[in-house]
């Protein structure tokens, strides 16, 4: 235990002077700035709020955490963070020196994995704190915007983002330990993001086959927290323009024909129930632990 504590302390010292230390606070700040300028700022000039506008503003932060953070910045952070944590050892070729010391090889990987898990949790907590500060500041600038901050639901949303990210984070840790390149996890992250954009919002007879893909899993679990309506899943923000329009039939020529019916399609043909929380949580914990163990075992190899 004392050896592991010293390894964690060493990771903390390396982290203080690394690019990862700047990334873990820059990304939440970028998210807050974009969320405020694009979505919150237009409400500042309103003297009165209609019930519809108030309902929109009340759940806006939760939806933006899902769409903007969970849909774009969170996958980027998961791809970059493990690679940046392994960068000092790869960049300065210190593996032989570290393995010559009385320190277990697998202990280094375990310390980095634990440090990455703590950093992801800290970043998500920072996102929640910044949103609380924003909601409080908006209420001070315009009393009409003094709406309650949904702390419990926000904590649930961020907690599911952390839990459902375990398989993907474990995969990136294993890849970053094996490969000395930032490009590989970034490419994997971009491919996963495109996969999420393409699959999110698709009505499937067995939605768990989509939701349990590690790259799709964080968005799918977070979407279940803020989900509303009869649809099986809300589409990804980037994939919304490509979703079928309700009561609109697109002909082979590309022309759109609006149809008339007494009830929407999701009422006439209700979709299958979404993936249950117990399956999302159980798979996230089990797959994340399995991949971490495999990466931990592989970390004991002899490095050339």
TrEMBL record:
The keyword Transmembrane applies. The chain crosses the membrane at residues 20-39, 66-86, 107-133, 157-175, 182-201, 277-297. Keywords: Membrane, Transmembrane, Transmembrane helix. Pfam families: ABC2_membrane_4. This is ABC transporter permease. It comes from Candidatus Geothrix skivensis.
């Amino acid at each position: 235990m004392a050896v592991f504590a010293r390894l964690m302390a060493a990771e903390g010292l390396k982290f203080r002077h690394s690019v990862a230390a700047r990334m873990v606070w820059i990304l939440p700040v970028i998210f807050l700035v974009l969320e405020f300028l694009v979505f919150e700022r237009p409400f500042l000039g309103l003297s009165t709020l209609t019930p519809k506008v108030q309902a929109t503003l009340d759940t806006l932060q939760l939806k933006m955490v899902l769409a903007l953070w969970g849909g774009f910045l969170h996958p980027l952070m998961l791809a970059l963070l493990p690679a940046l944590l392994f960068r000092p050892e790869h960049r300065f070729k210190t593996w032989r020196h570290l393995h010559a010391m009385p320190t277990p090889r697998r202990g280094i990987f375990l310390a980095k994995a634990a440090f990455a898990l703590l950093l992801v949790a800290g970043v998500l907590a920072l996102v929640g704190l910044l949103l609380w500060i924003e909601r409080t500041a908006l209420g001070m600038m315009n009393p009409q915007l003094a709406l309650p901050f949904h702390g419990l639901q926000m904590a649930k949303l961020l907690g599911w983002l952390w839990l459902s990210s375990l398989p993907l984070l474990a995969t990136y840790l294993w890849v970053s330990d094996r490969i000395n390149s930032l490009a590989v996890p970034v490419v994997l992250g971009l491919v996963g993001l495109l996969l999420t954009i393409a699959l999110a919002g698709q009505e499937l007879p067995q939605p768990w086959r989509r939701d349990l893909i590690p790259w799709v899993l964080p968005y799918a679990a977070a979407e279940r927290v803020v989900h509303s309506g009869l649809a099986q899943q809300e589409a990804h923000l980037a994939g919304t323009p490509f979703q079928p329009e309700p009561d609109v039939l697109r002909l082979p020529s590309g022309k759109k024909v609006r149809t008339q019916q007494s009830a929407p399609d999701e009422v006439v043909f209700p979709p299958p129930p979404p993936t249950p929380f117990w399956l999302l949580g159980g798979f996230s914990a089990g797959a994340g632990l399995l991949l971490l163990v495999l990466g931990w075992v592989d970390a004991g190899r002899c490095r050339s």
